[in-house]
Amino acid sequence: MVVNGGSMTLEHRWTGAISQLDLASGVLQQPDGDWVDEQLHHGTKVVVILRGAMRAQIDGCNGEFSIAGPRVCVIRSPADACGRQMVSADEPLHYVMVKAALEPGSKAESASDPLASLIPIDRPSLQHIAAPRALQALCTQLEVCPFVGAARDLFLSAKALEILALACDAIETNSAIEPPRRSLGDVERLKKARTILLERLGAPPNLPALAAAVGLNTRKLTDGFQAAFGTTVNDFLQDARLNEAYRLLSSGATNVSEAAHRVGYTPAYFSAVFRKRFGISPRDLL
Questions:
Q1: Rounded to an integer, what distance in angstroms lies between the CA atom of residue 140 and that of residue 161?
Q2: What is the tens place of the pLDDT at every residue in 112-161?
Q3: Could you give the angle at the alpha carbon of 85 between the alpha carbons of 175 and 189, nearest 5°?
């Protein structure tokens, strides 16, 4: 940082070993619930699971991973490796994915790989933690890109690097990777509670009613929801409401008042929480 004549300039240079950066988002559904093979290449793959659930296996990693959104997964592979995944047949997977391919043996690799000091890349690995709210919000904003042509490429490349940065920060600041294990029955009840909230954004049940609907007591619902999905019931509901409102407004499907009512907010309160979450007024999307 250099100070000259009262002005302040931030100087930064990064010579990276990333040879290719890929960004993708979408909805994945496997009606048959079959395992799908995937080739993993040298580098880092970040998958933000916004909604849905999946199972994953990677050659060289012990066991099988069961992952339900909202979570961020970081997959590291030292060279070409094989993996496989299965998406729940009854629940599509909403995801954003960034792949940062590294040049094997690059001199800059160990110095510039942002995750090198946190997750070694000498063997395949998969880690997953609760997706931070900032990361979920960033993924939602990817649905609307205001640029075209070369500007669009730069914008999306910057967002891909931002996702990598947030994933790196999340791993560095979260020491507990896995929540306490719960019975399959409780996990299914928690997933059902999440589905009920998503289906009733405009008029969601209160905590006692939601707990009764899925066969849990209120304490077990709130504690289990936090452990399984990395967020409280109320925070999840607010995020889901605002994400849906963002989608409605950015698609041009509704005006501000209609979007607010469809997700269960009054227009005045909606504008305040929307601005606090996304940093813009809902009218800015119209």
A1: 16
A2: 565 665 565 667 788 888 888 888 888 877 777 778 888 888 888 888 88
A3: 65
Return d(Cα 232, Cα 230) in angstroms, integer.
7
Contact between residue 83 and residue 143 where contact means Cβ atoms under 8 Å apart: no
Please tell me the distance from the alpha carbon of residue 129 to that of residue 119, in angstroms, as a whole number.
14
Asked if 214 and 192 touch (Cβ cutoff 8 Å), the reply is yes
User: Distance between CA atoms of 154 and 85, rounded to whole angstroms?
Assistant: 31
> Would you place residue 30 in the very low, low, confident or very high pLDDT band (cuts 50, 70, 90)?
confident
pLDDT, tens only, 90-120: 778 889 988 887 665 544 444 456 566 556 5
Neighbours of 37 (CB within 10 A): 9
Q: How far is Cα 92 from Cα 206, in angstroms, rounded to an integer?
A: 26
Q: Under a CB-based contact definition with an 8 Å cutoff, are residues 158 and 164 in contact?
A: no
CA dihedral 94, 41, 58, 124 (to 10 degrees): -120
Helix 218-229 × helix 207-214 angle, to 10°: 80
Residue 12 parent element (H or E): none
Residue 10 CB burial class (10 angstroms; 0-12, 13-18, ≥19)? exposed
The model carries a pTM of: 0.57
Rounded Cα–Cα distance for residues 189 and 185 (Å)? 6
